[in-house]
Amino acid sequence: DKLKHVIRPQIIYSYIPDYSQNDYPYFDKVDRIERENLLTYALTNTLISKSRPKSSEASGATPSEMFLPTDYLYNEFLRFYVEQSYDIYKANHNDPEPFTPIYGEIQYEPFRYLTLQADAKYSHYDSDFRTRNVGSLIADDRGDKLFVEYRYERDFAESVYTNLLVSITRNLRAYTDYERNLYDDQRIASGFGIKYISQCWSVDVRYIDELDDRRYVLLLNLFGIGGFGSGTPSREFEDIFGGRNSMLSSPYQIISVQ
């Protein structure tokens, strides 16, 4: 078969007890762990194509050798994911809306250098979308990447986000990003930076310009340990597609302060 369809159902239970955290320091909301009692059910559909490298025929291999499993290339070119959670804590306290919005995500790679993705959250209580995003990523063999995404969050924002990465050398990368609000035609944020990547560490220097804040950021990351730095950005640099289950890597590696 040249095409394989994989279906993966999941049931996940997540529980975090409610306990006092007053003895721990508080700098921002990340320093607090919220209670949780969720039952999540999800379904993943994946299409995988199988093909032989063109070089097999040109290499002079025999017909039997050309059809060995090691000669095949496998490409996960389409993925559809959907999930919803049931909040047991809310249900036990007579909350009329214990179900979370339905989250769906689809990713399609029509060919090697182009990836398309869309994700959305739909509330069956409101019969309306809470969020919806559509994006595309173009890349090349050198590692250069261009990402463009339309973003919508109900009653909050509608914007266009762009991100460009240029690989100057094998270890040195330059990047810039820009986001504009379509409601009032105003810039939300922009920035640029340079990142150097070594075998076991990396350093990232950025300039971030937001509506009410401008700052320079210096971050050092030790692979497998974590990152630290000064001037931590107030607006988190999210996954390039913003999807929790995205298969795609960011155009540049994000350093999170831990």
UniProtKB/TrEMBL annotation:
Single GO cellular component term: transporter complex
Sequence ranges assigned to domain LptD C-terminal in this UniProt record: 3-163
BP-aspect Gene Ontology terms: membrane organization
InterPro entries xref list: LptD, LptD_C
Name used for this protein in its record: LPS-assembly protein LptD
